[in-house]
Amino acid sequence: MTSGPNFMTLFDAFILGIVEGITEYLPVSSTAHLYLAGQMLGLKQDTFLTAFEIIIQIAPIFSVMLIYRERLMQSAALWIKLIAAFIPTGIVGLLFHKQIEAMFAANSTVALMILTGIAFLAVEFAYKPKAHAVKDLEGVSMKQALTVGVFQVFALVPGVSRSGMTILGGMLGGLSRDTAMAFSFLLAIPTMGAASGYTLLKEYSALSFEHFGALAIGFVVSFVVGWIAVKTFLAVVSRYSFKPFGVYLIASGLLYGLFGVELVH
């Protein structure tokens, strides 16, 4: 296949938009699921597809900004904590971006998915509501924000879920499930914004006006599905726990390993 508008249909863009919208904020690897979906659609991973994936990954950020717009507009302290939490990832990503990009050639995603699933189950089985006293975003301390930021650094490894790591970091730092999840969602604003901007600067030449239709479909679908996914995720976890996601990560990792699916690029 060749890169460009001939190899991606509007249907392909629609499907990838759905996958991105669903997986970006769930504690699973959106990168891994996007790549698997691309394989199933018969798409070639080239500079255009990389740029396309980055653009549709921006859409769920706007979904979260819409959902939390009042808190974001009213709380300067929250923005300070989000920026502080982003700093560890920003520093490590800037200093070691070449090494991180090289890791996309490593076939370690399956093992990392399984390990993340085990970590979620372990944290959930040890979860005690009294030990997770912070019930709202305003109560997150700077120390807890930095703890979440340190855990986010691990998500630089291909196949490791950013939301998964930050939620785990928040819960281990004393945040309730709901608060850890909300802080994780909001931390995507500076993190994904910076990562997407950097990648687009490198890959923008792969885009042209001919791609507008596919990009528009992918972006809009990712935004709408992302909004629905976040609202649903918040409702489900507030009533239950992260155990189903832990089981899903372990099961999907084992299935991908069994069938020899390559999930990184």
Automatic annotation (TrEMBL):
It catalyses: di-trans,octa-cis-undecaprenyl diphosphate + H2O = di-trans,octa-cis-undecaprenyl phosphate + phosphate + H(+). Its EC number is 3.6.1.27. InterPro entries: UppP (IPR003824). Its main location: membrane. It is a multi-pass membrane protein. Pfam families: BacA. The chain crosses the membrane at residues 7-28, 48-68, 75-96, 102-123, 144-161, 181-200, 212-230, 245-264. GO terms for molecular function: undecaprenyl-diphosphatase activity. It is found in: Cell membrane. The keyword Zinc does not apply. It comes from the Bacteria. It is an enzyme of class 3 (hydrolase). Keywords: Antibiotic resistance, Cell membrane, Cell shape, Cell wall biogenesis/degradation, Hydrolase, Membrane, Peptidoglycan synthesis, Transmembrane, Transmembrane helix. The keyword Plastid does not apply. Belongs to the UppP family. Catalyzes the dephosphorylation of undecaprenyl diphosphate (UPP). Confers resistance to bacitracin. Bacitracin is thought to be involved in the inhibition of peptidoglycan synthesis by sequestering undecaprenyl diphosphate, thereby reducing the pool of lipid carrier available. HAMAP family: Undec_diphosphatase. This is Undecaprenyl-diphosphatase. It comes from Sulfurimonas diazotrophicus. The gene is uppP.
